[in-house]
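Practice problem 4.
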């Protein structure tokens, strides 16, 4: 560390090898806004190497990963961020969206509900819960779930009570159809 720079957070931040972390983050933000998602991801990773304890960078990395459809990595980075910022409703929504994209509907509903508990006027959280519950029934009919072996032991072929009960449970956020 050769010198210190003042950031917009009113704290002093280090300048590494002639590169200011705020400038690196800004470079990532510009790249992400211009749909240069891989470039943004690289800039954010560089910033995280410069300041490994800054979980806000993990959230930025997650946004780039989400745009690159790397939902598993996005989920992991959002969990790091949320661990330090558990009251950030928008981050919980982002986590739920990554989980939904992975087919982890129960986890997604839980994340959306957490966001709604933090901000009960959050319309996006409300819509996301409904959309996820609708996804469960529209995407995975009992027959298709059986054919794809999404749920072992689900006798969807006969449409019996077990198949109906599991379908209702999934729609209510119990259980998980994971990819």
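Answer key:
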């Amino acid at each position: 560390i050769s010198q210190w720079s003042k950031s917009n957070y009113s704290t002093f931040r280090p300048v590494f090898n002639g590169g200011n972390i705020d400038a690196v983050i800004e470079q990532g933000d510009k790249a992400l806004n211009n749909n240069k998602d891989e470039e943004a991801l690289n800039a954010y990773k560089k910033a995280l190497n410069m300041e490994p304890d800054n979980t806000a960078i993990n959230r930025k990395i997650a946004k780039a990963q989400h745009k690159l459809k790397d939902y598993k990595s996005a989920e992991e980075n959002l969990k790091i961020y949320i661990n330090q910022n558990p009251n950030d409703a928008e981050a919980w929504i982002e986590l739920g969206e990554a989980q939904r994209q992975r087919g982890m509907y129960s986890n997604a509903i839980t994340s959306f509900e957490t966001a709604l508990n933090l901000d009960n006027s959050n319309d996006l959280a409300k819509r996301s819960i409904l959309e996820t519950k609708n996804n469960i029934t529209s995407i995975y009919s009992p027959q298709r779930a059986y054919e794809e072996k999404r749920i072992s032991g689900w006798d969807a072929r006969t449409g019996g009570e077990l198949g109906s009960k599991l379908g209702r449970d999934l729609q209510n956020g119990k259980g998980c159809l994971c990819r």
